[in-house]
Amino acid sequence: MKLVKSSIIQIDFLIFCASIATLSLSIKLSSKLLFIALSLGIIKSIINRDFKWILAQKKLLVIYIFFFIYICIQGVFIDGLNSFFLSFDRSYAPYLVFLLAPVFYFDSNRIKVLPKIFIAGLFFTFLLILINSILHFEVYDRSIVQELFDIHHLYMSLYILFSINYLLVRLFRIEDKKEFVLILIMLVILVSFLGFFKSKAAMIILILLLAYHTMNRIKWNAIKKVIILSLLFILIVFFKNFLLDLYLRAFDFRLRIWSAATEMISQNIIFGYGSLNEYLQLNIAHFLHGNYEFLDFNYNAHNQYLSFLLKFGLIGLLLILMSFGIPFFKNIKLLKKEYIGFLIIVGLMCFIESIYNRHHGIVLCTLMLYYYNTINMNEIKE
C-alpha cells in the first residue's frame, strides 16, 4: 500500500522518467509524456507551495529567463505581435523546456537514475532494431532506422556518445569485477551501434572522447609523453593522407550552407533575425549564391552556433554558452571529468548539426545539463 501511495505521489516524476526512456524510441510519445510530466510537476509545486527547485537551479534559471524574455521581445519587435503568437508553439515554446524542466531537479539522490533510465531506453531501442530486422528478414541500415523510429542518425550518435561517456567514467572507478564486465560489454555494444550508424563526425568525437578519458587516467612521465605525442603525430599523418579528402567531400554540403549563414550573420551579428527567420535568411543567401537546389529543402544552418547567431545574434548565443559554464565551476573533481566529456560531445555535435532545432537534441542537452548541475548538490532542506 505504501508503494502504491508513493507511486501516486511521484507520478509526475515517473512520467518524466518515461519521457526520457522513450526519447530514442518515439519522439511523439516522448514529447507527450514530457508535456504531461512538466504540467503535473508545476501544478504539484504550486499546490504544495514547494519551490525548492527554483532555489536549487536559480543561477541557470536566471540565465534562461533572460534568454526567453530576450527572444520573445526580439520576436515581437522583428515579426510583429500577430506573427509572434501564431508561431509561438513552433518557434518559441520548445525553449520553455529551459524554464520548466528544473521542476524535478532539487534532489540529487533522486535524479541520479536519469542517465541510467536513458541508457536503458536506448538499449531497448537497439533490441527493437534487431528484432524488427530479424522479423522482416532484412539487414537494417540507418535510413531504415530513421524511417522506423523517426530519428536521424546524428541524434542516435549523440545518444550513444553520451552513454559511452557516462559508462567510461564508471568503468575506471568500478571495483566489482561483474559490474566491470557488464559495463565493458555495454560499451562494446554502444561502439558497435555507433559504427552501424556510420557517422564520420561521431567517430572523430569518439576518438577524442577516448583520448580525453585515457589521458586523465595516465600518470605522466617523459616516456609516456613521447609515446602519446608520437601516436598523435601518426594519427594526424594518417588522417591527412587517407581520410581528409573523404571528410571534406562529406562536409561540402555543410560548408556551402555555413558560407551562406556566415554572410547573413555578418550583417546583423549582435541581435540576429529572430526565431522565425533562420530558413528565410538562409534561402535568400542560397539564392544569391546560386545554390538553387537548396531552396527546395529549406535547410537549417546545420551548425548550432551559426543557427543561434542567425536567430538570436551574439546576445542569444552568449546566454546559452553561459548556461554550460554554471555546472563546470561548481562540480566536484570526479564529476567535472564526466561533465567535460559531455561538453566535448555536445560542443562538437553543435558544430555539425543544429541539435536544438529538434526535440531529440534540445531535450537531451537541457535535461542532462540540469542533471550535471544538480548531481553533486546536497538536497535542499525545506
UniProtKB/TrEMBL annotation:
It comes from Algibacter mikhailovii. It is a multi-pass membrane protein. Keywords: Membrane, Transmembrane, Transmembrane helix. The chain crosses the membrane at residues 7-27, 33-48, 60-78, 90-106, 118-139, 151-169, 181-214, 226-248, 308-327, 339-356. Residues 181-321 form the O-antigen ligase-related domain. GO terms for cellular component: membrane. It is found in: Membrane. The lineage of its organism: Bacteria, Pseudomonadati, Bacteroidota, Flavobacteriia, Flavobacteriales. This is O-antigen ligase-related domain-containing protein.
